[in-house]
Design a protein that fits this description.
With about 400 residues, the protein is α/β, with parallel strands linked by helices. The chain folds into two domains: about 220 residues, Spore Coat Polysaccharide Biosynthesis Protein SpsA, Chain A (Alpha-Beta Complex), CATH 3.90.550.10; about 160 residues, 60s Ribosomal Protein L30, Chain: A (2-Layer Sandwich), CATH 3.30.1330.50. Strands 1, 4, 5, 6, 7, 10, 11 and 12 form an eight-stranded mixed beta sheet that branches. Strands 16-13-19-17-18 form a five-stranded mixed beta sheet. Strand 14 and strand 15 form a beta hairpin.
Amino acid sequence: MTVIAIIVAAGSGSRAGGPKPKQYQTIAGKPVIYWTLKAFCDHPRIERVCTVIAAEHRDLFLEATAGLALDPPVSGGETRQESCRKGVESLRLHNPTHVLIHDAARPFVSPELIDRVIAGLAHHPCVIPGLPVSDTMKRAPGGIVSGTVDRADLWSVQTPQGFQYPLIQEAHALAAQSGQFGLTDDAAVAERAGHRIAIVLGEMENRKLTTPSDIQDADALLTAKTFAGLPDVRVGQGFDVHKFAPGEAVTLLGVRIPHPFALTGHSDADAPMHALTDAILGTIGEGDIGFHFPPSDSKWRGVDSSIFLRHAVSLVEAKGGVIAHADITILAEAPKIAPHIAEMKEKLGAILHLDPSRLGIKATTTETLGFIGRREGIAAFAAATVRLPAHGPLR
């Protein structure tokens, strides 16, 4: 049995609100779609992972899924059914024996649930997970109850839904040829073609995120779950300073701010980003920026300091850890920092995989004292909190 997973992410997700479609909104520091895709990428029975996205979301997708081993994304259609059909057709060259089709907005799918669906495919051509309906069901056309529905054989259906590949490929083709494009799940496509569909037990946690409160609840749940598995809490601190030279702008925490002077030094001389990088490196005992990126090496001259920060984050994540919090204080008489803090938080949050509410960015002067007071340069302090798995001796 060769199994390929298709993750459907072409919808607008507008009911969830927010500036981005729900599949690209952040929970526990990373986009919803990242957690969903990771569950399938990490599963030993899944050969490949294909994602169906809206063409206009390509940049969002590439940013959200960095580091995951994925096939190139497939552009979806106007309906979920059409998007799924395009995803299925894209696998023609791979010709798997089976496919699993899953909603991107279900990030809590477990390895055990994936196992159950795959195990069911050894005995049935189509397998879907579901939960028996426990609430009393009413018919209410126009909002007026007309009767009670017998719930004895009713199931609430989830994904991933599994199928023999040739079967679901043909079923989708038949539905499209007949002009049917509004079916809401792939089981309905297979059912329409006359195929037998088996149900395995789903999971309450495998819910689909739809509303703003769903996103908030998922963020709280996954953050708590992540932190519970990372009991080793460490705090690092960093400091950096750079002097002014003639110029037209300074770069602070990745934001270019017009100014009559520029900062000179290593790379783009982003002092607060350098301080934060050192703080993160300090939490895992990995030296400082100069150790990893020697200033004597000309290839680092003038480069974007986010390269250094991303490297520090990758070292933490390679140890199974996460950045839980960062706090930066910028010391400068000028330029004004406050108007740029929101943009700074957005840029840092993306690099650290951290919600902006876990970032502190402050600016202060030295009351005209010292080299900062004389407007000769800028300094920055930073502190970072990292959570790691419990490993390594204390002494």
